[in-house]
Amino acid sequence: VCTSNQVGFAAMLMQFCFKNVHSFLAALLRWIYMLVSGTQVQQTPVGHISRLKTRTKEQKEGSSTQLTTPSSVNYHFTRQCNYKCGFCFHTAKTSFVLPIEEAKRGLRLLKEAGMEKVNFSGGEPFLHERGNFLGELVRYCKQELQLPSVSIVSNGSLITENWFQKYGDYLDILAVSCDSFNEDTNKVIGRGQGRKSHLDKLHQVHNWCRDYKVAFKINSVINTFNVDEDMTEQITALNPVRWKVFQCLIIEGENAGENSLREAEKFVISDQQFQDFLDRHQSVKCLVPESNQKMRDSYLILDEYMRFLDCREGRKDPSKSILDVGVEEAIKFSGFDEKMFLKRGGKYMWSKEDMKLEW
């Protein structure tokens, strides 16, 4: 016969068991919910599930369910420039340039995350340390990181043959910006310096690219001052591997709005005007058009602090630096659309070894 104490002990034991089973089931359900919804969970040192930590709205918007690979990255390591193009959308708002060893560390992080191509831009990338800083980064990326493609976008004005002699072997593509084959139009746009001829320099750099086996490319921004021009004959004669044709783009805080260093509104053209320009040049086989829609979210842009810049809202919203949080975390806030990147032809034969050009 059970005593009252024994009955009471049995009841307490059963209550304890049911309570622990309930806790275990509740924890199990929370864990399953975490797996399904993507909510983060923390674990204590002894392996017990602690209180769930839900991501903030900002983190949900910035992150992606699929990890983005930074296959092609544009590194604007300086904002300083010797030209004053009226529509510039990456203006000299700071004079900061990373120490070269820090820049190399960031480039290595990008390579480890999957970078295949790096494009150095500015500002004017040949301005800092007379091009030697740029040259050493180019050498490092090709020789040490062994990237398939290393390229530069420049206005061309500061490039010397000595630079090609020293660094040309490590460079795959050099793009020179030229918006018009009328010298007066270039001056109105702001693409020029003093009495120097932008077009003479363009042809000189073109010849150096041929002599030192670097693929030559031309970038043009189509705006109110050149939209009616026919460049077919000149582009065909220069025969670049690619002619990138951009529609003039407004970026809040850079070339429009409060605190901007440029006022680009007078340069803006309509979508139809841009299409008319493309139609006029449809016989140019190397033409690669980029409308405003394609430009906003199809580039991985790193600023001078190695922060990704999200341009989806018509301004440049920076992530944290890859040097502080790593590539995987920072790239979540890049606004990068890989589908648009592929649609605009972002992935192409970008190594000069694969191009098999006749020099």
TrEMBL record:
Pfam families: Radical_SAM
Domain Radical SAM core: 67-287
Requisite cofactors: [4Fe-4S] cluster
Location(s) in or outside the cell: Endoplasmic reticulum membrane
Biological process (GO), any one: positive regulation of immune response
InterPro entries assigned to the protein according to its UniProt record, in alphabetical order: Aldolase_TIM, Elp3/MiaA/NifB-like_rSAM, RSAD2, RSAD2/Viperin_antiviral, rSAM, rSAM_sf
Superkingdom of source: Eukaryota
GO molecular function, one term: catalytic activity
GO CC list: endoplasmic reticulum membrane; lipid droplet; mitochondrion
Keyword terms of this UniProt record: 4Fe-4S, Antiviral defense, Endoplasmic reticulum, Immunity, Innate immunity, Iron, Iron-sulfur, Membrane, Metal-binding, S-adenosyl-L-methionine
Mode of membrane association: Peripheral membrane protein
Family: Belongs to the radical SAM superfamily. RSAD2 family.
Protein name stated in the entry: S-adenosylmethionine-dependent nucleotide dehydratase RSAD2
Record organism: Cyprinus carpio carpio
